[in-house]
Amino acid sequence: MYPDPPLAPEPAPPLTEVGQAPERLAGHKNLLQLIQLRWLAVAGQLATILTVEWALDVGLPLVEMLTLLGALVLFNLVCWLRGRAAWAVSNGELFAGLLVDVAVLTGQLFYAGGVTNPFIYLYLLQVAVGSVLLKSRYTWAMVGLTSVCFVALTQWYRPLVLPGMGSPALSSHYVGGLWICFMLNATLLVIFIGRIGRNLRQRDARLADLRQRAAEEEHIVRMGLLASGAAHELGTPLATLSVILGDWSRMAPFAAEPELREEIEEMQVQLQRCKTIVSGILLSAGEARGDAPAQTTLHAFLDELVAQWRSTRPVEELRYEREGVPDLPIISDSALKQMIGNVLDNALEASPDAPLSLQVQAEDGTLVLRVQDQGPGFAEAMLARFGKPYQSSKGRPGGGLGLFLSVNVARSLGGQIAARNLPEGGAEVVIRLPLAALVSTHSHGQVAAGWPGDGRKPDGA
């Protein structure tokens, strides 16, 4: 027997939870950053007000400005309590918090000189923070709001009277230039910070994909070593069984009974299939037992594969169509055979009492194989994680490795495997392989024999 397959890890959480958990964590962290930034703003505004009032001897409306500051403190305490709650922080909540910050800053500037106050460019800090934390529509809304506040402060504000100076007056041209400068800075901040953030997210996604592929390849190597060792161990008992069955077939008591003779012949067929699987495992691992990869043609390869699969499986009907496929010389590789055979096996398991369909076509230099069944189809969660290891609803240890290995064999050839549920019922798995990769002489080095099933729903589920 094969060694017991490795136990499947704990089932993955639902996809909605997987997607929401990082989003929820990021929302809470962003809210915490805003709270910390707001405390800095409170401390900075308080220090500035006291310095201007007492050190520079500039008269300020302290009651109004400190009232605004107290309101900002209370709001930040409410945000701190909100951050301790478990539910997710939405983008709208972050936007609302920034609106309060803009409102308080506008009020402080109104009482401290309006557009003549150099701190008016703190609006750009709100725009920069918004462009990092918020979605695009909220970011541009923040640009529009701060621009409106900027323009309003050019018309309505309490002049800031400095000692020894009259009320400062700015020309309309200067004010217009200030507004244009502000709009230019705000727009460039949003555009370039957005682009930089998008580039960083794309980089992180590529790194995550590379790490996932590396983990999958390591997983394949471990399974290859396990399967190769099992194949070596199985060689001797299979040879012994073959000799025993051969002796039984020639013994008079068995030869005289037609039913026993048929059962022995069926056992010999299945034993030969087991030996073929073992040879395929060792061949894929680079240890040939018998036939090595041979030169053939694409038509002969496909026809032989279908004929062999039909003769060794209890299939009711396999509708095989091969149209417009060039008869190119290719390498008959066991991993390629077993990859296609595994997809057919999964279709047969999903729909054992209904006809199956295999359609082979050539499209723009790509070999396209479509395997269709009339089973219950794939579960939505399985489709979302198609080809991942241990993604199966069949309820057995090691399930889900079949399509995982098939996907990696296709990937090694520069191709891909995709699945979908058909509108009329059943499922379709599409294998796409570049014809150029089949013509070249290569070694796949993948373990393909005896793969467990995929993530298909059990029949009748």
UniProtKB/TrEMBL annotation:
Annotated EC: 2.7.13.3
Entry-linked InterPro entries: 2C_sensor_his_kinase, HATPase_C_sf, HATPase_dom, His_kinase_dom, HisK_dim/P_sf, Sig_transdc_His_kin-like_C
Transmembrane segments: 62-82, 94-112, 118-134, 139-157, 177-197
Catalysed reactions listed for this entry: ATP + protein L-histidine = ADP + protein N-phospho-L-histidine
Family matches, as Gene3D superfamilies: 1.10.287.130, Histidine kinase-like ATPase, C-terminal domain
Pfam family, one: HATPase_c
GO CC annotations on file: plasma membrane
Record-given protein name: histidine kinase
Organism of origin: Caldimonas brevitalea
The encoding gene: regB
